[in-house]
Design goal:
64% helix, elongated, disordered N terminus, disordered C terminus
Amino acid sequence: MTQTDIHPHQVSRLLLVLAVLGPVQSVLGWSLSAALWPGYDPIVQTISELASPESPVRYLQSSFFILGALIDIVVALKFTVLAKPARVLIFLGALATIGLTIFPTPLVGTSEPHRVFATISFVIFSIWPVFGMRFGREWPPIVRPLASIVSTLVLGAIAIGFLGVWTNPDIHTAGLWERAVTTSQAIYPGLVIFLSWRFLKNHNPSSVTNMG
């Protein structure tokens, strides 16, 4: 097989590691932080409250937020299987995650900067698949139009459900909904990376996954 037969957008081993690390660190972060805070209710209280100024696990949860943002930045820079608009969005989503960490929400009252950054983050990580669409059978099916549109609709529906609960003080399941949103938004990029790697590997059996 000649060099021209190898797909120019191979999935690196680094991305495969991040595909696993991304969702694991996300769930581990809020699970560990919640376990170390006696009396914390993960059904009612949001993940952001774990990083509030009054939280006894503020720095632990904040460190996981930053780790997640760094992972997203690397994915945005390295995962060229996605079209460039999606990669730009993921990069901006990572900056929004850093922003909501810098401006934490208090346990009593609200922080408007935190809400703005959090909302931007939830929106971006719901819509990026449709901006990452690739056309042509040489691209993995997971980034072609059908999968991209369906995944955006599903992620968007989950995010809208959470935002509706989050902004309604009469509903007391914001913590549960937020965990559903963050978990789905963390798992999906990893799934896209893995399925893209498998597709490209099967279509280029003699090629070696790049290290970069």
